[in-house]
Structures are given as structure tokens and as C-alpha cells.
Design goal:
The structure holds 2 protein chains of 2 kinds. By secondary structure, chain A is mainly alpha-helical. Chain A is built from 17 helices and 4 strands. Chain A has a single domain, classed as Cytochrome c oxidase-like, subunit I domain (Cytochrome C Oxidase, Chain A), CATH 1.20.210.10. Chain B has a 5-stranded mixed β-sheet with strand order 3-2-1-5-8. Chain B has a 5-stranded mixed β-sheet with strand order 4-10-9-6-7. In chain B, a hairpin with a 2-residue loop joins strand 1 and strand 2. Classes of the chains: A mainly alpha, B alpha+beta. Chains A and B meet through helix 4, helix 8, helix 9, helix 10 and helix 11 of A and helix 2, helix 3, strand 7, strand 8 and strand 9 of B.
């Protein structure tokens, strides 16, 4: 174990029972800039990534406004290309990933496993600053003469070479992505090391909460996938500036190689994005059904299977290239439906015969469940090559992945409502939260369902105008209305944060939650714990609060056996 | 929706469970039986080629499965949240595992997946089949237009953006397509064919189209290819074999050269700047 664990915390107690929990050090801006505390870094990540969500959302609103008429003139063709490129890039690279595997994970994972901090606190700080720098670098493209990158968030070669896309915007895109890529790799290292080495005594692997399990698997996937993207980006940069011809036919290179490299990162990335949110939703559903996670071990098995399969499916993004082995990638992709289905049934099983409490967090999780089901089922079509030939690069695909990512946004919002009080010490307003949920959930469906129909009617992706097919206007208008509703829901969230600012004190465990992070104070002290309960299962806080209600296997009717001790042990 | 009604009071757990299970099993079977009469199109269309129809039927099969499974899961979710909504401060039974049930929902999806895979393979083999044929068209995509040439004849059609050049092909005939790109990646996509394929630089993509009805069908580039991607149109005109032969015969070497120079020099779309279309890729 590390140094931190070998030296018990010195906890001076004051007369009034207050614990002296702040380390001596700078405060304010200087504290924020020099901190290595995982909670502050995690909060910085969360706030920054939500700002990125707002920026990417604004791009989306402009895109939807442009498409509201067949001959939209709000933006020019080249500005439109910049907008959807940066919308996708900001949402995928700068929001969804950092929000989940760096923001909430940073805050929650150490507390969930009873650790005082991440394994490498300084590396953690470096990750954040790389991420912030990378984000600014990528967005700075808008201020260059040629505008921001405009080759789509996938940057297919040879469109992304220096002949077809000259200009600094593209280089800033590559540079920004390299920086955030390294940030992700360092976070992956940190997550794996923390989870393997800093678990509290008694916290065995199969007593880790599902969220922590999912973050471990995410960390492993990051380590497998991101270095490949980084290498691919360096080669792209060399092609652009040093004449290496790796992706250009003229020099003996292969354009499709970029797609292989990109999607070898890109498909695991889908699960790098999704697994953290699966973990959040799992925790939320269990807590607000007042039951343990149904099929806990099956859930972990499903997560591991998804991760393993995700490394062998990348070419399903390339079926229409005509140069990949269709049946292999088809069956591998179809098989992902199996562990994903297990998860969905486990979530339903968790609610089954529970006491389902419709808090905002739970509503968001249920919204996730329904939206993710739609996105998952339409994903099965795309695993079948003939159906992919039919729908590839049409709005059907756009609708499919927006169902998935909007499900993640719903799950992530659930995560903020659920864990926000632990981080800040204050609850958010439930009434505004529920209004936000309905706008977000209904808006998402109004936004995506017309897009499925547009795709089936042949509307291609990434077109700024559709003068030949004015009949697409009506469905596009509905989609734009949905996008506006989603925008409004985000606004409601900001309003909620402002309205609830330090208004509703949360207490240590406002939800009667189950996992270890709810055992400590809200917000937790500098090194998280003064005392720990005995850890006998994946939900030590529940066992401590409800010693007579431990988890039961199938057919196990009596509450017998050793009762968990209600005693606590001092934090190591 | 009847599945989400509450069970009558006083019914023992076991019979309640059995009744619920019966409904759960009966629902998809009933849906299947209903659907056996007329399978809905689920938003897709038959299309104009032989393979577009197989693809359409595969689409119907997948959609039927998705509707049944999706409907079943939605009903389960609705039932769970309505039936088990919080009513007090009770702590429910803390059951965590039910191995037989978990195995069931692992094994059944695996069987379904292999069924979907089998159907996929059957249709896929039809779609990618490459039978011998006398009609070949070389399709070359470039920023931002299309060039259709007919090897062994003098016929060439070239056009940019909203000029929407027309690819003429005979009906009820296997037509072999060689698809290439001069510069970046483009997408050859015709809605009525339920089919698309990338035009890649340096690679000759080959496939067969077999139209079963005549008519003019609109096509569009679907893979982002730069500034005028939104307007990179073309048309496919399917005609009778005799009309096709007449059309081909109408081209002489002189008309071809004229047509080609006309297409590259004269821009009907004011949007498009003059751009050299010199070929540097394969083919």
C-alpha cells in the first residue's frame, strides 16, 4: 500500500464536535490551481465538461435552426461543416468522456472504495490541466483565419489532409485532441491504480460498487484504445506537415488505414463513454428502489463482456467501405446486444418488488433506460451489413447515436442530482429537477424520432441544405423543436443550480443510499473518512444502517447467519 | 397494456407469478400471429432493385423483433414502476440473485442474435453477390460530381453538383458497377436501391445492381467530402434494354469528347467554383 495509507490521519477534534478537516494551504484561485485533491479536481472536471456541454449544445441549436428550412441561409456551407464538426468533437471528446470517466469518477471512486485520494494525485492534476488546455486549443480553431476544423469529428483521410483541409483550425483540432487524449490516458492509469491498490480493508473486488467496477473497466479500455488514437493523430499530423503519405494514395499509403485506427479507438470509446453512465444508473436504480443491484455478479460479467467485445467490432463503422470482413464484424457487433440486454433486465430486476421512489435522479435513470433501449435496439440494425448499407450515413444513424448519447445525458443528469449533494453538501430543487427531466426526456424523443424517419426517407448526414427534398422540412422542424426543448432543459438545470445554491442542506445520506461514499460527511473531509463501517458486501453503508436487511440469494428466505457488525473502525 | 394492471387481492404469489408469466409468453406469440398476416413496412420501402427488396424484408424481420422485444421491455419497465412505486417507508425483501432467470435472459438473447445473424448472412450474400454480366458501368466520384462511363462503348456522362448527371442502366439486367474516387471519400447512395457504398481513392469497389422497375431515381453523396457535399447530386435512370441500347449507340467518340468538355467547362451551378477534375487516383 502507499504512503498515505500507512500513516493514519491525524484528526484533532474540537470541543464543539467539529472536525478540523482542511489542510493548511492556499485558498481561493490559488488553491484551485495548485490542488491535488481528487474532489476539487473532479469538480473542476465536472464544471468544465458541463460548460462544454453548453457550448456543444449551442452549436447543435444553430445546426437545427439551419435545417429548419430546406434552403437555410443562417450559416454558409463551410460554416455548417465547421459547426457539426465541432459539435461532435466537443460533445464526444470534451464533454461526455471527461464528464464521466474524469469528473464524477474522480469525485466518487475514491470515496466509494474508502480511499483518501486517487493513487497519483499530481498526475490527476496534470490530467485536468491537459484537458482544459486541449479543450481551449480545439475551440481556438474558430479564431483562426480558415475557421475551425471542418472534416467531421471522424476526420476521414484524405479529406483531413493538408490539400483538402489546409489551415490552422485542423491542426488545432489535432493538437487539442492529442492533449485531451493524454489527459484521458493518465486518468485511465490513475483509475486502475486507485481501484487496484487503494481499496479500504474488507473492500474486495467483488464488494466494489458497480460504478467503481464500471470505472475500472473503463480505465482498462482507455489504456487499450486511446494510445491507438494518439498514434493515429500523430501520423495524421505528419501526413499534413512532413509529407509522410501514411494515409495518401499518391505516396503509397492507404486512406482506409485511418478509419481502422480511428474506429479501433472509436468503438471502445463508445463504451468508454457509456460504461460510466451505466454505472451511475445502476447505483441510482438500486438506491431508489431500496434494493441491492439485482444480479450483481452478472452485471460485472456483462460489463467485462461488453468491454471485451467492444475491441473486436470497430469495422462495423466501415461496412460500406467494401474492404472489411462483413460476417465477423457483424456477429461480434450483434453479440454486444446480449450483455447489454443482461444489464437492462438486471435494472428491471432491481426495481422488481422494490419501493420505487420517483426522485429526479430516479426519473433521469428511468429516462435513460427507455432512451437507451431505443438507441440499443436501433443499433442492432446497424450491426447487420445489408441494413447498414441501407441506412449508413443517413439520419437513421444520426438518430441512433443521438438516442444513445442523449440517454447518457439523462443518466449523467441523474448522476448530478444523485451525487451532487455529496460533493456540495446541498440538494438541488426537486420540482425544477422534475420539470427539467420532462423537457429533457420528451425533447429527446421529439428530437430523435423524426430523424429516424428522415434517415429512412434518405436524408444524408452532414448536409446544410436540402433543396431537392423540401418534403423533409416538416420532420426537420419537429427535430428542431425537440432540440429546443433539450436546450430549455439545460437552461432549467442552470436555473436550478442558481435557485438551490446553498439552500437545502443534504446531510450525510439524504437518499438512504447503500455505498461507502454515503457513510462520510457531505462534502467529505480532506482525506474523505474519519471512520469506516465494516465492509462485508458491496453496500457497507446500507449494512450499517439496516443490519437486519442484508442481501438474499434466490430461495434464501430467512434472514439468518452472521449479522454485519454495527461497529465502525477508524479510517486507516 | 393489460400487463400493467394490478393483480387482484388475495391471490397467492405463485399463481400470480404464473399468470404474469403466461401473459409474458402469450404477448409476443400473439403479436407474431397478428403480424404473420401483413408485416408492416416499419417506415422503409421495397425499393427498385432485387436486393433492395431482400434488404427491405430483412428490415421488416429486424423491426418485428425489435418491436416485440422493445415492447416487452417497455411493458416490464412500466409494470415495475407502477406496481412497485413507493407507497411507504417499507424496506422490501433484499433479493439479489435469481440464477435461473438470469440464465434465461442470457441464453434467449444469444439464440435471437444467432437467428438475426443467419437472416443477415442470407441477405448479405444476395447483396454482395457478383454474377457475370455484360453491362458494366465505371462510376467515378470527385469533388463534387460524378462521372459515369461505359467500358467498351463511347458513352460517358459527367456532371457536377446540382447538374445531377444521369447514370442510365437497363432494367431486369445485372449491372456491374466499378466505383472509384478521384480525391476524397464519397458515398454512392440511391434511396430507392436501399443501398450505399463508399467511393474510395485507390480502391475499386465492385457491386451489382439489378433494377426491377424503370424510372428515374435520385442519388446523393452521403459521405462528407468537403464544401459542396450537400449538393453532390446524381440520378439513376432505369430504362428498358432496347432503350438502353439506343442510348448507348447515340454516343460516338466525338459526342463523348464534346460532352466531357462541356461538363467540365460549363458550370450550371453558380455555387461551384471552377475546379480541375484531373484524375490522380486509381482507374
Amino acid at each position: 500500500m502507499t504512503d498515505v495509507l500507512e500513516h493514519p490521519l491525524d484528526v484533532p477534534e474540537h470541543g464543539d464536535g467539529h472536525l478540523h478537516d482542511e489542510h493548511h494551504g492556499p485558498s481561493g484561485l490559488l488553491k484551485w490551481m495548485t490542488t491535488t485533491d481528487h474532489k476539487i479536481i473532479g469538480l473542476s472536471y465536472t464544471v468544465t465538461s458541463v460548460i462544454m456541454l453548453v457550448i456543444g449544445g449551442l452549436f447543435a441549436e444553430i445546426i437545427r435552426a439551419q435545417l429548419a428550412t430546406p434552403n437555410g441561409t443562417l450559416v454558409s456551407l463551410s460554416q455548417y461543416n465547421e459547426l457539426f464538426t465541432m459539435h461532435g468533437s466537443v460533445m464526444i471528446y470534451l464533454f461526455a468522456g471527461p464528464f464521466a470517466f474524469a469528473g464524477l469518477a474522480n469525485i466518487i471512486v475514491p470515496i466509494q472504495i474508502g480511499a483518501p485520494d486517487m493513487a497519483f494525485p499530481r498526475l490527476n492534476a496534470l490530467s485536468y490541466w491537459l484537458y482544459l488546455t486541449g479543450s481551449i486549443t480545439m475551440l481556438a480553431g474558430f479564431f483562426t483565419a480558415g475557421g475551425a476544423a471542418n472534416f467531421g469529428w471522424v476526420a476521414y483521410a484524405p479529406l483531413s489532409n493538408s490539400i483538402n483541409t489546409p489551415g490552422a483550425g485542423a491542426d488545432l483540432w489535432i493538437g487539442g485532441l492529442l492533449l485531451t487524449g493524454f489527459s484521458a490516458i493518465f486518468t485511465g492509469v490513475n483509475l486502475c491504480a486507485t481501484i487496484f491498490y487503494l481499496r479500504a480493508p474488507g473492500m474486495t473486488m467483488f464488494r466494489m460498487p458497480i460504478f467503481t467496477w464500471n470505472m475500472l473497466v473503463t480505465g482498462i479500455l482507455i489504456l487499450l484504445a486511446f494510445p491507438v488514437l494518439t498514434a493515429g493523430l500523430i501520423m495524421l499530423y505528419c501526413d499534413r506537415h512532413f509529407g509522410t503519405h501514411i494515409y495518401s494514395v499518391a505516396g503509397g499509403g492507404v486512406p482506409v488505414l485511418w478509419q481502422h485506427i480511428f474506429w479501433f479507438w472509436g468503438h471502445p470509446e463508445v463504451y468508454i463513454l457509456a460504461l460510466p453512465f451505466f454505472g451511475m444508473v445502476t447505483e441510482i436504480i438500486a438506491v431508489f428502489s431500496r434494493k441491492p443491484v439485482f444480479g450483481y455478479k452478472g452485471m460485472i460479467f456483462a460489463t467485462l463482456s461488453i468491454a471485451a467485445l467492444s475491441l473486436g467490432v470497430w469495422a462495423h463503422h466501415m461496412f460500406t467501405t467494401g474492404v472489411v470482413l462483413l460476417p465477423f464484424f457483424s456477429i461480434m457487433s450483434l453479440l454486444i446486444a446480449v450483455p447489454t440486454g443482461i444489464k437492462i433486465f438486471n435494472w428491471i430486476g432491481t426495481m422488481w418488488r422494490g419501493e420505487v421512489w420517483f426522485s429526479t435522479a430516479m426519473l433521469m435513470a428511468l429516462g435513460f433506460l427507455v432512451t437507451f433501449l431505443i438507441g440499443g435496439l436501433t443499433g442492432i440494425y446497424l450491426a447487420s451489413p445489408p441494413l447498414d448499407f441501407f441506412t449508413h450515413d443517413t439520419y437513421f444513424v444520426v438518430a441512433h447515436f443521438h438516442s444513445v448519447v442523449m440517454a447518457l445525458v439523462l443518466g449523467g443528469m441523474g448522476g448530478l442530482y444523485y451525487w451532487g449533494p455529496k460533493i456540495t453538501g446541498y440538494l438541488l430543487n426537486e420540482r425544477i429537477g422534475k420539470a427539467q427531466f420532462w423537457f429533457l426526456f420528451i425533447g429527446t424523443q421529439v428530437f430523435t424520432i423524426p430523424q429516424y424517419l428522415l434517415g429512412l426517407d434518405g436524408m444524408p448526414r452532414r448536409i446544410a441544405v436540402y433543396p431537392h427534398d423540401p418534403q423533409w422540412k416538416m420532420l426537420n422542424d419537429w427535430s428542431s423543436i425537440g432540440a429546443a426543448m433539450i436546450g430549455l432543459s439545460t437552461l432549467l438545470f442552470v436555473v436550478n443550480v442558481a435557485v438551490s445554491w446553498k439552500k437545502y442542506p443534504a446531510g450525510d445520506n439524504p437518499w438512504d443510499a447503500q455505498t461507502l461514499e454515503w457513510f462520510t460527511t457531505s462534502p467529505p473531509p480532506h482525506h474523505n473518512f474519519y471512520r469506516l463501517p465494516q465492509i462485508r458486501s458491496e453496500r457497507p453503508t446500507w449494512d450499517y444502517n439496516h443490519p437486519e436487511h442484508r442481501s438474499l440469494a434466490h430461495g434464501d428466505h430467512a434472514d439468518h447467519g452472521a449479522e454485519p457488525s454495527a461497529e465502525t473502525v477508524p479510517a486507516p | 397494456m393489460e400487463i400493467s394492471t394490478l393483480p387482484p387481492q388475495g391471490v397467492t404469489t405463485r399463481t400470480r407469478r404464473w399468470r404474469r408469466l403466461r401473459k409474458v409468453v402469450a404477448l409476443p406469440i400473439a403479436a407474431l400471429a397478428l403480424a404473420g398476416c401483413t408485416v408492416p413496412s416499419f417506415g422503409a420501402k421495397q425499393g427498385a432493385t432485387k436486393t433492395s427488396r431482400s434488404t427491405f424484408h430483412l428490415w421488416q424481420g429486424f423491426s418485428l423483433g425489435a418491436a416485440i422485444i422493445g415492447g416487452f421491455v417497455i411493458l416490464l419497465i412500466l409494470y415495475a414502476v407502477i406496481r412497485y412505486r413507493r407507497k411507504g417507508d417499507n424496506i422490501p425483501r433484499q433479493s439479489q440473485y435469481h440464477l435461473p432467470l438470469e440464465m434465461l435472459y442470457t441464453v434467449v438473447p444469444i439464440i435471437i442474435v444467432f437467428g438475426l445473424f443467419a437472416a443477415t448472412i442470407v441477405v448479405e450474400n444476395q447483396v454482395v453477390a457478383d454474377p457475370k454480366t455484360n453491362v458494366t458501368i465505371n462510376v467515378n466520384a470527385f469533388q463534387w460530381g460524378w462521372k459515369f462511363s461505359y467500358p467498351g462503348t463511347s458513352a460517358v456522362v459527367v456532371g457536377q453538383t446540382t447538374q445531377a448527371p444521369e447514370m442510365v442502366m437497363p432494367v431486369n439486367t445485372d449491372v456491374h458497377i466499378n466505383l472509384t474516387s478521384t480525391d476524397v471519400i464519397h458515398g454512392f447512395y440511391v434511396k430507392e436501391f436501399n443501398f450505399s457504398r463508399y467511393a474510395l481513392p485507390g480502391i475499386r469497389n465492385q457491386f451489382t445492381l439489378h433494377a426491377v422497375q424503370t424510372g428515374t431515381f435520385f442519388g446523393q453523396c452521403t459521405q462528407l467530402c468537403g464544401l459542396y457535399h450537400s449538393l453532390m447530386y446524381f440520378k439513376v435512370k432505369v430504362v428498358s434494354p432496347s432503350q438502353y441500347a439506343t442510348w448507348i449507340a447515340g454516343f460516338t467518340d466525338a459526342t463523348t469528347a464534346q460532352a466531357a468538355s462541356k461538363a467540365t467547362s460549363q458550370q450550371t451551378s453558380s455555387l461551384v467554383p471552377s475546379k480541375s477534375t484531373a484524375s490522380s487516383g486509381a482507374n
